[in-house]
Amino acid sequence: MIDLQDIKTKLSLSTDIAIIAHRNPDGDALGSSIGLQLFLERINHQVKVVMPSDHPDTFHFLPRVDDIIVFDQEHDRAREALSKAKIIFCLDFNGLDRVDKLGITINESKAFKIMIDHHIDPEPFVDYAISDSGASSTCEMVYDFITDLGYNHLIDPILGECLMTGIITDTGSFKYNTNPHVYAIAGELKAKGVDDYMLNDQIYNTMTEKQLRLLGHCLSERFEVIPQYQAGIVAITKEDFKKFDIKRGDTEGIVNYILMMRGINVAAFIREQPTIVKLSLRSKGDISVQEITRNHFNGGGHKNASGGAAYAKLEDVVSRFKKVLPKYVKPLHSA
Predict the structure, then answer these.
(1) Are 61 and 202 in contact (CB under 8 A)?
(2) What is the CA radius of gyration of the chain?
(3) Which of 137-151, 187-201, 240-254 has the lowest mean pLDDT?
(4) Residue 179: which of 190, 171, 187, 169 has the closest Cα?
(5) Which CATH superfamily includes the segment(s) 4-204?
(6) Residues 307, 281: contact at Cβ < 8 Å?
(7) How far apart are CA 15 and CA 331, in angstroms?
(8) CA-CA distance, 20 to 39, in Å (whole number)?
(9) Is residue 223 within 8 Å of residue 257, measured between CB atoms?
(10) What is the pLDDT of residues 268-288, one digit of tens each?
(11) How would you classify residue 197: left for phi > 0, otherwise alpha for psi between -120 and 50, otherwise beta?
């Protein structure tokens, strides 16, 4: 049976390594991947980070982010990096469907595969899995991985800021998915010189005028409240995408504004795209939006933050969400 000492032995000799995270990478996927890359390079490995699709401009401040190989843009270079790798790290995803066509390449690769992930029900496609659904983020787990290998001293402010980015974004600045250990890690990173104020400013205070006007449109024209089930829905159309010239990352965080309303415990941000309708769900307390997306929208994620999709009309997806909501949320009063 493989243990962490075996992994340390494998990493003791210089080799080619590839790191891959999920499609539409967020702060945790990017922060954990780049942070792990910086660590592995410091112990003399040759490392390439590969993503199925590009990242939001929000995370332009991360070091080496422009060096990421994006499969959507460079198919051959991405496949070459994975085929050359002797070790492949799979970060922040637990199933090959989360990396699209790259899943085939990973599955066929003879490389030693290591998963570090905090989503439930990981699929058995790796040789060694570090899986903890109780962790706040994959960045928390990468911090522990580096520390457990005995290399905590290699975590400097630059590497630390990568890891803190994922912790901040996956906890909503420590509003959810927290645990005592992640607060301890944040304190240790702060002590190492990580500038958490700068990170919060970069992540949350760099909206463009277009993004701010889109947010206003969503809350003014597309916001529906279902008070009986303490739920709020924002559903945007293909026409909205055209009107606001919505690009990757422009809608990031809109779902969280719904939860800011008093009495709202479930938030749904539903967007109509050319061939599919996607959902981002958030909740408070014991309401599991992960069960909603898993059971009804081909998705998954975490108890209070989850995503899904459906090949259907926008109005049908909204109707389906309203129909299943009573199964997971008790009404405030009987109808």
Answers:
(1) yes
(2) 20
(3) 240-254
(4) 171
(5) inorganic pyrophosphatase (n-terminal core) (3.90.1640.10)
(6) yes
(7) 57
(8) 15
(9) no
(10) 999 999 999 999 999 999 999
(11) alpha
Q: What is the mean pLDDT of residues 244-267?
A: 94
Name the band, by pLDDT with cuts 50, 70 and 90, for residue 316: very high
More confident residue, 167 or 1: 167
**Cα(288)–Cα(307) distance, integer angstroms:** 12
Q: 322: burial class by Cβ within 10 Å (0-12, 13-18, 19+)?
A: middle
Q: Which two tokens stand for residue 67?
A: 């060096």
Write out the DSSP string of 15-80. Answer: -EEEEEE-SS--HHHHHHHHHHHHHHHHTT-EEEEEESSPPPGGGTTSTTGGGPEETTT-HHHHHH
Question: Which run of H or of E encompasses 320?
Answer: helix 314-324
Residue 177 has pLDDT above 90, yes or no: no
Thinking of the domain 209-327, which architecture would CATH place it in?
Roll (3.10)
DSSP per-residue codes, 253-293: THHHHHTTSTT--EEEEEEE-SS-EEEEEEE-TT--HHHHH
Domain boundaries, the chain: 4-204, 209-327
210-248 tens-digit pLDDT: 999 999 999 999 999 999 999 999 999 999 999 999 988
Neighbours of 52 (CB within 10 A): 21
pTM over 0.85, yes/no: yes
* pLDDT over 90 at 196, yes or no: yes
Q: pLDDT for 96-120, tens place per residue?
A: 999 999 999 999 999 999 999 999 8
CA distance 333 to 335: 6
Say if residues 117 and 131 touch (Cβ distance below 8 Å). Answer: yes
Q: Are 196 and 168 within 8 A, CB to CB?
A: yes
